[in-house]
Each structure stands twice: as C-alpha cells, then as structure tokens.
Amino acid sequence: MNPVLTALLIPLLGTALGSAFVFFMKKDMPALLQKVLLGFASGVMVAASVWSLIIPSIEMGEGTSAIIPPTVGLLAGFAFLLLIDYITPHIHASGEAEGPESHLSRTAKLALAVTIHNFPEGMAVGVAIAGALTADFNMAGALALSLGIAIQNAPEGAIISMPLRAAGNSRWKSFLIGALSGVVEPLGGALVLMLATSILGIMPYMLAFAAGAMLYVVVEELVPEYSQGKHSNIGTIGFALGFALMMVLDVVLG
User: What is the rounded distance in angstroms from the CA atom of residue 29 to the CA atom of residue 7?
Assistant: First the structure.
C-alpha cells in the first residue's frame, strides 16, 4: 500500500480495534482501567507533540528567529481547539457536558467530543507526511507518529464505545459510532497535507499548530478525567508508559 495512505489510515484502524472491545466487555469499563488508558493516551500525545512536531518545527528555522513559527503555531493550535470546544455541544466520557445548549442526543454529543479529540491527531499525521514529502523529514518518522497515535487510539476507542453501550445503545451501534469517530483523522490529515504541501513556508507553523491542538486535548480533557477521584496515580503511571513508548518509537523509527 502507498506509504502516505498507510500513514493516514493506521490511526483509524487503531480506533476501530479499540471500539471492538465493546463486544468482549460488560457495559461499564472498570474505573482503574479507564484511568490508566486515559493516562497512556495523554503520554503518547505529549511525547508526539514534543519529539515529532515541536522540535522539528524549531529545527526548520535558523538563529533566534527559529522560535517564532513554533510559538505562533503552538498558540494558534490551542486557540483553535479552544474555539471548537466552546462552540460545539459535546459530552466527555466522564459525563460532563460542555459547549452551548442543544437538542442533540447524548450519543451525538459523545460522538462530537471524540471528533474534537481526534481531529488534531489527524492533523499531526498529515503534517508529518507533508514534512516527509517536502522537507528534510523521512516517511519512517511519519509512520512512527501514525503508529503511536494508533496505539493510543485503541484504548480511546474502548473509552468511547463502552459509555455508548452503557447509555443503552446496542453493541454494534456502539462499535460503529466509536469506529466512525476515527474517520475524522484521515480526513483531517489529508486536509492538512494538502495545505502544508501547497503553501511555501507554512510547514513549521503547521507542525506547531498540530502540537498545540493535541496538547490542548491533553490538558483540557484527558488529564482532568484521569486525575479526578481515587487512584489518580494509576493514570500517572499510564502517562509515563505512553510517553516512554512514543519516545522510543520516534527515536527508533524516526
């Protein structure tokens, strides 16, 4: 298969595999397991943001001005996700509702929450592929990032499909909604890929933008969800494992 298409689709496969957990588990995911999976996903996303996006963005510049594109891009990524989070009605896996009031069903709001979460991950893969095609990157690095995101998407898929099942949806419906929530990743990746390869000089900004968007998700959603209540240290252990795994993948494959 074409390596570009492979890198775009691997994260979607991870989401689908995780969503399939709904066929093998009871309606409710154990709290300890959910905390460690949320922590793991957080660690992967933070490591990917640093090693695969922010550092390459800085290295593309020269002198003290090299810090301008990553700083602007990072803050723009945070601002973009903050805006999306503010204007989109959604419900987190913990049950907390955010955004404007609407008549959407709980299932639809859960799906929107996942879409907000997954889009920056797709952007990160897309801009990494663009770097391999137009800059001094290599495709192995883009594939490493894609694989790392797919690995953390597996537990995320379960974290989405299980609450949908607990809310009264059938196993198949819960699986399909969870799996389809990952479709936004290859779509977002393809969109960013087209932008980054067609506009000269935008690459360092896009790398940092994707990093800012992913870090927003970690700080706003994942960390608060695994750090609340008892056994928050389990989520911290998951974070360390996810961070270490993504760091190793980036160094060995990138």
Answer: 30
